[in-house]
Amino acid sequence: MKVHQVFIPKGLTGKYQLLDAGVDAPFKALMKKAYHEWRKVRTDATSKRYLNKPSRQDFINFVSEAWSQNTPETIENALVGAQILPEPT
Question: Where is the DDE-1 domain (predicted)?
Answer without folding.
Answer: 2-78
